[in-house]
Amino acid sequence: MQSLGCDVAALNTVQFSNHTGYGQWTGSRVSAQEITDLFQGLKQSYLDDFDMMLSGYVPGAEALEAVGRIAQELKTKAKKKPGSFFWVLDPVMGDNGNLYVAQDVVPVYKSLISHADLILPNQFEAELLSEVSIVDMPSLGRAIQVMHERYCIPHIIITSVSLAGGDDPSAPPPSSLCVVGSTMTSARRARAFKIVFPAIDCYFSGTGDMFAALTVVRMREAVWNTPGGDLVRTEAWRSADGVDALELPLAKAAEKVLASMHEVLTKTCLAMEEGLRRRRGEGVNGDDKTARLLKSKAAELKLVRHVDSLRNPKVEFRAVKV
Fold this sequence. Notes:
One of its GO terms (cellular component) is cytosol. Keywords: ATP-binding, Kinase, Nucleotide-binding, Transferase. Its EC number is 2.7.1.35. The chain is 40% helix and 14% strand. Strands 3-4-7-8-9-10-11 form a 7-stranded mixed beta sheet, sandwiched between helices. The longest helix is centred in the last third of the chain and has 33 residues, at 249-281. The protein has 9 helices and 11 strands. The chain is of the alpha/beta class.
């Protein structure tokens, strides 16, 4: 985010030696009181003049409630100036049918969604929030509509959607993934789009965090580039009902986010293969655990060395209506 021009104040919810994709780490989870204290420290020095907030992985219900109170306080402070604060909430709960947070975190997320402006659930998390089983594009559309109606959430992007094609021509083709997004109308009706992109046969950690961070930047950029300039002064940056799904700032933002993601992940995958070949050439093999750890290290996202892919990606994958 800083490489794209953002001034960032980071409140860590964990202090880990490395990400959990390695299967081993040291460190600790930050308590709800520590999160609150850190924010109070920002406030007392007048460092709480934020126009956007991104919340991601929070390991426990009490800590998540503390994060929610911070977001609600910032939204209340911005109430007199519509559009001056925007909360992007990534409801990190699990993936592929498995929770990796405590069960009591789920109802807390459900209580906070209505206060957010944009949520970024993956397919499994969208099922948890909507209570709709997503098996095809029609059920995915129902899940989005349910979330708009139930939580009055203005913007939704469901990430990494993978569906069995079957007889559904609207499903992503084999070896492809898609994201599906929507900005609701004033009547809470979905305006949905999807972006299909090729899957990369490699396991990465941190892609959800990367997607969320890029979305913050690109959403703000798309809103500020909207003709007329009125959208930046509109509550939750919700476009007028007459705006087509493909003209939504959310759709334009998602196109750029995926362009950066695809470039960085492709380059990371190539560097990973080269690095592993070099290790093998040096005679570094070791046992299964060593091999797994070396593969995890080789798969670290190559963000710094490919910063131009973050700043100026080539947009190849375009939004289409759902």
